[in-house]
Description:
By secondary structure, this protein is α/β, with parallel strands linked by helices. The protein contains 7 helices and 7 strands. Helix content is 38%, strand content 18%.
Amino acid sequence: MLTIGAPTAANLVFIISRQHPPEVTGTIALQAFVERLCAKESLACQYRKAFATVVVPMMNPDGVLQGHWRHNNNGVDLNRDWRLFAQPETRQVRDAFLKAAAVPGARPFLFLDFHATHRNLFYTQADRHETFPKEFTRRWLAGLRGRFPEYKFRRQGSHNPRGGTSKSWAHEQFGIPAITYEVGDRTRRELIDRFATGAAEGAMKLLLSALAGGADAEADSSPRGGSTCP
Ligand SMILES: [Zn+2]
């Protein structure tokens, strides 16, 4: 687990990946996304001053080592264990996130879980499900669709608190947008990187805007100010 940004920042973003061992393209997207959060330029600097991003890039190292398809060392699909928490991996990550969120003044804003499947896809809450920040998912994905028409993706909005998935847990627990970011197994690497970089930019703008009280972030497409970073 790594924490990016001001350790004293009370505003939190949680990112995980690789609950499922072979879903490599999801982790490739996570790398590009996280690298963009770490960039030495104005938008990312502003973001890192305001937000702490807690990243667990490899949820299931035993499963990866053993070449499992879905399961961890105990033969359990971790992304069905976020209700029972019978597995050490899910328990530890849950506890780390709850600990970060329990710091006085802390406020979670966003949860992302990177996976891979046959196509590019986002599993989200439906727009009718309330989240804070409001309408983050709709605005984020609409912005990305406009900016990257060559990256075809679907969105599937639902909420099933009994499903045991990480996204349902994070949404139930924190009331935030909690999104499974699925990357196609055969999506071109260059496009995965470019889109994930744009996804990080869009997310940072919307999160900073939510912090400032919800001014229209989509209209403000270019980072302002100098390029110096802390
Ligand atoms: Zn998966």
